[in-house]
């Protein structure tokens, strides 16, 4: 069996689209996945599956989720190797010990050079970012909550994704390695 992480977008934000993690875990169990574990309320699930195709797993999970909860959540399913590479390729190692300043966004696909250039034009504050494949790394020195750039990022890049702080990234990696 292979280890995967499912990163949900748009659940349990601002008291909307509430999904209890115990129920989310139960839904993964019902789909036949093994060693299912969730982490914090933003929708992070580590699990094992026989099938090794992340795209097929994403479609299965998204369909079951929408059927059960009545709304769609964009879900990024990635394997352990992807998560290990995300951490290894961190372009901001100097801030890795300050997880409120470093974030990684799992993108639905790798952005084009034009999309990245358009985003770079909007990055005028203290933030900096780098894209490596389907991961966008964001260094927000003043924190994500104060970042004006983080607010415009999704609309400007136009590549769906879901962001996690570095503490969550490292915890998910640890959980996946233990699975």
Automatic annotation (TrEMBL):
<dbReference type="Pfam" id="PF08002">
    <property type="entry name" value="DUF1697"/>
</dbReference>
<dbReference type="InterPro" id="IPR012545">
    <property type="entry name" value="DUF1697"/>
</dbReference>
<protein>
    <submittedName>
        <fullName>DUF1697 domain-containing protein</fullName>
    </submittedName>
</protein>
